[in-house]
Structure formats: structure tokens, C-alpha cells
Write a structure and sequence with these properties.
Number of helices: 3
Radius of gyration: 31 Å
Structural class: mainly beta
Distance between the termini: 80 Å
CATH architecture of the largest domain: Sandwich
CATH topology of the largest domain: Jelly Rolls
Order of helices and strands: EHEEEEEHHEEEEEEEEEEE
Strand content: 25-35%
Number of domains: 3
Strand order of the largest sheet: 1-2-3-4-6-5
Helix content: 10-25%
Shape: rod-shaped
Number of strands: 17
Largest sheet: 6 strands, mixed
């Protein structure tokens, strides 16, 4: 059997005459005005402000009243709140990729922390998760970092990735195939020496720009 919840109700004149003190959080409806009041446990009825339900088309807030147009307006307050002042919210961990609210603290933490992907292999092809990160090629012999075709891994245009030759083996940056265009000064695509670094950014679908401490 369904449970029915009803709040105290009466006409404006009935409430005014009785002038009760509503308990803290207690709701009371003025039936002929379509308005409600919420008690605070100490203020008499006649001194309490209204929270009003009207049939107008706008949702507005006055000094003492809130006007909710209909159920759609009430839902809008929940689904698309219009906040003023300086609202706060919990700050998620910097590596949280859910749909939680990104506070200024979260954004600052994300900016300050860059993931380092250390690679100890003779060859490595970039992964989508490498976007915006640092790739350390830590290998004693010559090694190749491969930039994939867009059809293989569709990095967004504007993606940047930093590459460091952390090991003694020289790191070369190469495209997955001739379809990947790597633009660099004088076609320099090899890191100069150990601890040299370069940055690549995606300019177009299969076009990347490479710059840094490079040689041929």
C-alpha cells in the first residue's frame, strides 16, 4: 500500500489568526495562496517568510520569497542550478576522470601534476593516455618512439606530448607510416643526447610538429 505524506494546511486567514510557531523544518501550506512556509522552531507564523508556488513562467528569487513556476522549474533547480557568490564543493583526486564537479582545487592539482611514462624498450608507439604527459625513453641502445596514424589512435588536434631521452640510447621520433607527417626544423627527429627533450603537438589529422633538442 502506498504511503501518503501530507503537510499542515489552511487558508491565509486561518494561519494568520492561529499564528503558530512551526517546528524547525516543518512545512505548512496556505491553500488559497499556493504558498508554503518552513518553520524554524521559534518564529511565529506571521513573521515567517513564504516559499511560494505560482503559475508564472519565470523562476525568480526575491528578498524573502522563492517562486517555483511548476514541476519543470523545480526540476531545473536540481538539474541546472544557477549559482551565485562563491559556492564550494568537495575536491576530487587529481587523477579522477569521472563526471564529478571539477573545483578550482582539482584543476590546480591537475595542472601541477603531469604523469611520467617511463619506457624501457627499443620501440614504443604512443597511446591515447599519453596525451599531455611526459614519455621517458629509458633504454641503453637506439630506440624509436612512433607516432600513430589518426585512424589507429585519434589524438585530438592540439594534443601535446613531451619526450625525454632518459637513457643512453638515442631516441628517434618516427611516424607509423608515410601517412604521418612530422614537421621539424631541417627534418631533425632524433634527440641530441641523454636527457635531451622534445615536444610534439598535433596540428592536423595526421600532421604533427616536433621541436626541441634535436639532431638528424
Amino acid at each position: 500500500m502506498a504511503t501518503k505524506i501530507q503537510i499542515r494546511r489552511g487558508t491565509a486567514s486561518e494561519w494568520s489568526s492561529a499564528n503558530p510557531v512551526l517546528s524547525s523544518g516543518e512545512l505548512a501550506l496556505v491553500t488559497d495562496l499556493s504558498k508554503i512556509k518552513v518553520g524554524d522552531g521559534s518564529t511565529n507564523w506571521n513573521s515567517l517568510a513564504y516559499i511560494s508556488l505560482t503559475n508564472t513562467d519565470d523562476l525568480t528569487e526575491g528578498s524573502s520569497n522563492l517562486y517555483f513556476t511548476d514541476q519543470r522549474a523545480i526540476d531545473a533547480v536540481v538539474d541546472s542550478p544557477s549559482l551565485t557568490g562563491t559556492p564550494t564543493a568537495p575536491t576530487a583526486d587529481y587523477d579522477d576522470d569521472s563526471n564529478k564537479i571539477a573545483t578550482t582545487g582539482y584543476v590546480q592539482n591537475a595542472i601541477e601534476r603531469v604523469t611520467i611514462n617511463s619506457v624501457s624498450a627499443s620501440a614504443y608507439e604512443l597511446e591515447l593516455a599519453d596525451a599531455g604527459e611526459i614519455i621517458e625513453m629509458d633504454y641503453a641502445s637506439a630506440n624509436i618512439l612512433t607516432v600513430p596514424l589518426n585512424s589507429t589512435k585519434a589524438f585530438p588536434i592540439g594534443t601535446t606530448i613531451d619526450i625525454v631521452q632518459y637513457g643512453s640510447g638515442q631516441t628517434e621520433i618516427a611516424g607509423e607510416s608515410a601517412g604521418v607527417v612530422l614537421r621539424s626544423k631541417n627534418e631533425q627527429l632524433k634527440l641530441t643526447s641523454q636527457y635531451s627533450a622534445a615536444t610534439i603537438y598535433k596540428k592536423d589529422t595526421d600532421e604533427w610538429v616536433v621541436f626541441g633538442d634535436l639532431t638528424v
